[in-house]
Amino acid sequence: MAEAFIVAAVRTAGGKRGGRLSGWHPVDLAARVLDELVERSGADPALVEDVIMGCVSQIGEQSTNVARNAVLASRLPQSVPGTSVDRQCGSSQQALHFAAQAVMSGSMDVVIAAGVESMSRVPMGSTSVLPAKNGMGHYMSPAIRARYPDTPEFSQFMGAEMVAKKYGLAREALDEYALGSHQRAIAASREGLFRREILPLPVRTADGAETGDVHEVDEGIRFDASPEGIRGVRLLQEGGVITAANASQICDGASGVMVVNEKGLKNLGVQPLARIHHMSLLGHDPVIMLEAPIPATVHALRKAGMKIDDIDLFEVNEAFASVPLAWMQATGADPSRLNVNGGAVALGHPLGASGTRLMTTLVHALAQRNGRYGLQTMCEGGGMANVTIVERL
């Protein structure tokens, strides 16, 4: 079987809700990432055989197959198809898996995996707002309710609290981790470590006019972050440990990677950044939900014939600080190798774009630190987790 290689990886800097990317239509935002991937790889645009794009809120401006619409808004020829994927927060990580599987099978040679989410323009939860009538209109069907009778709603927030309780994580530990995420992101930003992975974009007003300013620094990073400031944020639930400060930030953004096989490498005439070493995913308890990356990582390492210490860098999505903290506790991973340039607490979590955002950061960080293997995983709605292991080349 052929192998899958990443030859280009890029992302936008994260934009805060109502912030510097909110003037961008998400289709156009994603299209700029597609164009940049082609530019960086030097590929003939006609060689791209598919665009697979993660997006969670596929409604409004992100509806009607956002991947195909992004192709039509880009410089790719209209002969390039596109399809949209929803595996909740892991949507674009799953897009990467689909792209890799396509080139490994030999059915395609060059595929783009990407993700987009404008949480300013298409608010989280927009896809489930149809009014319920006569018991109809809710995603939890009668059969699901019968299977989980004590669960009126699958809640990521409640899952985060449950993970913290199960692993004995106090608010102080979560706040300390959150501060560290900002500190790592501040250092990476000031040292220029994000420069290679970020696509600078002009800032636009709500009507699409350009302001003359350029967006190239993650807007969510709190450069003045302090222990006192984080401690001062109120709890989201009385008696709980989760606050807005130790959870991921609502974010606008797009990201993507170009994936090819050996034939694609030859056709493009480029050197790969990394090789896909392993891909797997796992379903887990949808009630505690966010614990899934733990058994998924154990499963992936076993299938890959590796140990946790074989991995040089980890990217575990910081949906809530309790997730990476519990993951480290359960796996025994070295904290110094985890989210070394900060994570979603500081950089933001643009839902469908986060999968390829994490992979973009991971690939570039491996190169900067001369690491060999990197592992990416993230919790996903419904109690799932994808795991991808890459080898830097």
TrEMBL record:
Question: Where's the Thiolase N-terminal domain?
Answer: 5-262
Keyword Acyltransferase included in the entry's annotation: yes
Gene3D superfamilies linked: 3.40.47.10
Q: Name the InterPro entries for this protein.
A: Thiolase (IPR002155), Thiolase-like (IPR016039), Thiolase_C (IPR020617), Thiolase_CS (IPR020613), Thiolase_N (IPR020616)
One Pfam annotation, family name? Thiolase_C
The entry's keywords: Acyltransferase, Transferase
Question: Which residues does the UniProt record annotate as the domain Thiolase C-terminal?
Answer: 271-392
According to the lineage, what is the superkingdom? Answer: Bacteria
Instruction: Give the UniProt family note.
Output: Belongs to the thiolase-like superfamily. Thiolase family.
For this protein, the record's NCBIfam families field holds: AcCoA-C-Actrans, PRK06504.1
Protein name as it appears in the record: Acetyl-CoA acetyltransferase
